[in-house]
Design goal:
By secondary structure, this protein is mainly beta. It has one domain (4-55). The chain has no helices and 4 strands. The chain has strands at 4-9, 17-22, 32-38, 46-51. The strands form 2 sheets. The protein has a two-stranded antiparallel ribbon with strand order 1-2. Strands 3-4 form a two-stranded antiparallel sheet. The N and C termini lie far apart (37 Å). The model has no long low-confidence stretch (mean pLDDT 87).
Length: 69
């Protein structure tokens, strides 16, 4: 799967713009809270995306967490 960072209009302000993470078909991934881009000279670009866990479209899978019992 290819993911794409796009600029879209309507970032909580009239005329505002925002960065969003989309799938390869241009559909925005759900529950995005923030997208940031960092770039240092001569280094790869780092994109960080924060998601809201709502239990419906974004869930935490506890099966990866091991109990210490």
């Amino acid at each position: 799967m290819k993911l794409v960072v796009r600029t879209v209009e309507g970032a909580n302000l009239p005329g505002g713009r925002a960065l969003v993470l989309c799938d390869e078909h241009g559909v925005m991934l759900p529950e995005q809270a923030a997208v940031t881009i960092e770039q240092e000279e001569h280094a790869a670009i780092l994109v960080t995306v924060a998601f809201r866990v709502n239990g419906d479209t974004v869930v935490l899978d506890g099966s990866l967490i091991e109990d210490d019992d």
